[in-house]
Amino acid sequence: MAAIFNKLLLLLILSESFVGIFGIGVGVNYGRIANNLLPPSQVSNLLKSLNINRVKVYDADPKVLQAFAGTDIEIIIGLGNEYLQRMRDPQQAQEWIQQNVQPYLSETKITCINVGNEILGGTDTQLAAYLLPAMKTMYGALVTLGLNKQVYITTAHSLQILGTSFPPSQGAFKEDMVQYIKPILDFHAQVDSPFFINAYPYFAYKSDPNNVKLEYVLFEPNEGSVDPNTNLKYDNMLYAQIDAVYSAIKALGHTDIEVKISETGWPSKGDENEAGATVQNAGIYNRNLMQRMQQGQGTPARPSQPIDIYIFALFNENEKNGPTSERNFGLYYPDGTLVYNLGVKSYVLPRIDYSSSYKSVFSIFNILILLLGTYSLLKR
Questions:
Q1: Does 215 participate in catalysis according to the annotation?
Q2: What CA–CA distance (Å, rounded) separates 253 from 248?
Q3: What's the CA gap between 65 and 41, in Å, rounded?
Q4: How far is CA 7 from CA 2, 10, 11, 347, 371, in A?
Q5: pLDDT given at position 343
């Protein structure tokens, strides 16, 4: 009986280790392009149960902001691309913040406004021209309202802005992007806000599965690659991508800006031509990534600086356009069940039951008390 008890206790400890992975500060993207998701109030409970304390959303939906009130979860809200032209007007920027940020700040920990998403590198050059003016005007509105020390401004970029990504020490932005990125970097340095990048090793593997080694993109054991200029060895693609972005930023005269990974993930399902999009690979990628974050790893070029990452995404989203993979990046199915095991070793966190009675009865503490009592009775 003692052996059984010890195994059960170990199971609970390892289940707690799963929660601990999220507790280290890894954030998650909460996209909602779907018609079958749990209501925001239940999503808030799910995140709290997993000890996730940072979340990024793509708008400023009042229902979501209200659901996170009093949770102590830090939330990054999004200003959609469609607002950029209007947000160049100081009055409209201030009104947007007064309507979508200020009323919630006393209860909801809004820490950032992400102005636009993946604007640069796309085909709409007009939006690219609107981006920095909108960022500056939004920041000015925060200053006017006395909120600039509480909420920062940034924008998320795709890796399409890079012209060179390997070797990492030679990372460089595309020449036609420099005219936009250089003043954005100057803005970041001035207001002390981070540079957001959406980095997906999956897409590199998908586009060239014959030459990109799967182990290298999944953080699995492999021979890695060496930067010939620095002799630094990279055992995974994500770290190489991050250092390439830092090098590109340095080439434009800045060493004073932090790079944060605003999105990274792996799809659990894809079309026939989407190599690597499987449940197994998605689980491996995210488990290995979170375990490395738990260790506080930095990149080879910045080993003492822990990487700041938001995993994409919390849920599968059934209304997203594009190939099948776009709808299958979630850690969870819409009903709140895990798509794949994310636990330490092979243990699976039990499915979340949202009723208050179950949450109170089956907390870890109460389960341990129950086990201890059972063991005592059987020992007599």
A1: no
A2: 9
A3: 10
A4: 9, 5, 6, 12, 11
A5: 67
319 counts as catalytic: no
Q: Could you tell me the pLDDT band of residue 360, with boundaries at 50, 70 and 90?
A: very low
Of 359 and 327, the structure prediction assigns the larger pLDDT to 327
For residue 332, the 8-state DSSP code is: B
Q: Supply the angle between the helices 175-191 and 125-144 in degrees, to the nearest 10.
A: 0
Tell me the pairing of strands 309-311 and 225-226: unpaired
State how far the Cα of 326 lies from the Cα of 340, in Å rounded to an integer: 17
- pLDDT for the residue 342: 82
Asked if 180 contacts 173 with a C-beta cutoff of 8 angstroms, the reply is no
As given in the structure block, the two tokens for residue 230 are 């620095």
Q: What is the pLDDT of residue 348?
A: 32
Q: Dump pLDDT digits (tens) for 159-202.
A: 999 999 999 999 999 999 999 999 999 999 999 999 999 999 99
Q: What's the gap between Cα 190 and its chain centre?
A: 25
Residue 344, SS3?
A: coil
CA distance 191 to 62: 27
CA torsion through residues 241, 304, 308, 255, sign: negative
Give 288: exposed, middle or buried? Use CB within 10 Å, 0-12, 13-18, 19+. Answer: middle
Q: How many CA atoms, within 13 angstroms, populate the side-chain half-sphere of residue 119?
A: 28
Which residue is catalytic, options 263, 274, 317, 319?
263
Bridge-based pairing state of the strands 162-164 and 172-173: antiparallel
* Single-letter amino acid code for the residue at 56: K
Report percent pLDDT > 70 for the chain. Answer: 83
**Residue pair 93/138 in contact by the 8 Å Cβ criterion:** yes
Residue for token pair 């200029």: 229
What average pLDDT score do residues 76-84 get? 97
Mean pLDDT of all residues in the chain?
Answer: 88
Residue pLDDT, tens place only, 247-277: 999 999 999 999 999 999 999 999 999 999 9
List 118, 258, 272, 317, catalytic entry = 118
Q: How many residues does the chain have?
A: 380
Determine the pLDDT at residue 373. Answer: 47
Q: Distance between CA atoms of 243 and 169, rounded to whole angstroms? A: 7
In this structure, what token pair is assigned to residue 252?
């434009």
